[in-house]
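How a chain folds remains the central question behind the approach discussed here. In the encoding step, the backbone of a single protein was reduced to a row of integers, each denoting a local shape. We regard such an encoding as a compact summary of how the chain folds. The sequence in question and its structure tokens are set out directly beneath this paragraph:

___
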Amino acid sequence: MRIGFALPQFGPLAHHPEDIARFAHRAEELGADSLWVGDRLLAPVDPIVGYAGTDVIPPEFRASLDPFTVLAAAATATERVQLGTNVINAPWYPPAVLARSLTTVDLLSAGRLLVGLGTGWSPEEYEAVDIPMAERGRRLDECLDALDAWWTRNPVEYRGEHWTVPASHIDLKPASRPHPPVYLGAFAPAAMRRVARRADGWLPVAIVPAAPGDPDPIAALAGQLAGVREAVEREGRDPAAFDAILRINPNADASVDDIATALVRAEREAGVQHAFVDLIYLGKNTDQALDLVQRVLERARAS
């Protein structure tokens, strides 16, 4: 299994952006296979929708760094690891701006970018970027079309209901050909149908350890992946070419054993070949986060 980790982007680690390059370089030395960013804009004081089924926003979300800048720093500090977004909230960005940012990171990393896109869940974040949240699904579909045009044609032109790219010469294309793989985060039925129809892969999530009374996320994963691949086949696509990268979200009380066990089980029980671990609740400083990286890799690969 390929094992990656979230870059120091949120919470206490975000207060030390000077450590991003050091974290990335050392994580690669320790044997990490990928490094990841997310996309948080703000933490509402009185949220309309809380995080992960709660009615609050975790305090760790009150500090967040720009995902593209963090990826660029990691790209220049590493040589081997893949660099991923899980996820960029695509409807927040005009596709031309998003395409330029993603292309830059892919070129900086010599083709190591994995593009993970989603729609987000916070009404206040949509209000802050002045995009109607009700349009997020349609805007994501248009963004996928516009990105494909930007990356594979020259001149580029795209005209949709919400976004337009006038006919333009765009000479810089990604190092990955024809373009970086595009994964989608999704849970709702309509979003899962989009995954099956359009994505190179799916981005499932497992919270570790599961809360008391909640189902075992790893036990459910094999069935979920089988269902997605069946949907991919119904769309006339090759399910064997469809990928999945699992995000492990450890709770604040998760142990190294909890995380390593989840990684091993995901590979053995669900056939997951690539996963990454978010350390947002566990890493209080860069050195502690790197120690966790080392211990998780050692424990998981010794199993």
In short: DSSP finds nine helices and 13 strands in the chain. The CA atoms of residues 19 and 286 lie 7 Å apart.
